[in-house]
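subagent[fold] <- orchestrator: predict structure for attached chain, return tokens only, no commentary.
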Amino acid sequence: MCKNEPILVVMAAGIGSRYGGGVKQLAKVGPSGEAIIDYSVFDAIEAGFKRVIFIIRKDIEDDFREIVGDHLEGHIDIEYAFQDINDLPESFTCPADRTKPWGTGQAVLAARDLIDAPFAVINADDYYGKEAYGLVYDYLKNSCKQGHVSMVGFILKNTLSDNGTVTRGIVKTAADGSLTGIEETKEIIKGADGVIRGQYNGEVTLGADDLVSMNFWGFLPDFMDELKTGFSGFLSQLKDGDIKSEYLLPDIVDKMLKEGRTTVDVLTSHDTWFGLTYAEDKPPVVKSFAEYKARGLYPDPLFK
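subagent[fold] -> orchestrator:
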């Protein structure tokens, strides 16, 4: 059993270049104007989480507190960390023409002074369903082991978009269910013939029931040391003029895995994932939450 209550860490500092129009993390999609992040926190509380750290940008702090943070007060302990492109190790400076954050690895690293317990990491604009939170909370509370990382895997057919191609990390596992690798596969789409195809060193055919990573992770506190050391290494290898490369959690975990420094336990969720990648995704997301309300899965409003 792990010491201390697990923490939920929500990455909400990204810039949705494909979404367009407003901050997608704050888009109102619920019957009473809830954002996806509200449902994530609601499900996390149901699973047992008592503390959340929101990783945001300073420029959206006021809006974030007004739309999300303020009405969650009293339901869960809330802390904030701020991702900043200039928050770099000593001897490194941000290129003057870089505008986007440094990726999910740097996002979690922004919470380095707050994390003192096992923690789960999610994206703010992804709806993961209820099962995932129960799986990871139970793992972090009762089953986590030193040197192990956990990852919630989702079934590919439950993560596709009707509005364009998606990129998914196709999960490869050993006989014992532990992760052996993640194949970052791009341009995944279900064709008119019902076949799911994508691009991974050329065109590949994918199985509807393949497991994929949706950036839902469980870590122990010492993972923060890994992030700190790895970020310096990442920055030192950048070529001059590179303003787009990102320090990403899947890459970090994959490197640890290949070097034999971790074991990744895969927890499988059967829920349907959906999120806001494109502006066209919003209407079906709104419809889904209306249906969930009608089925009694969620109260309206979520938080009173």
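orchestrator: received. Logging for downstream: The first strand starts at residue 7 and ends at 11. The two ends are 34 Å apart (CA to CA).
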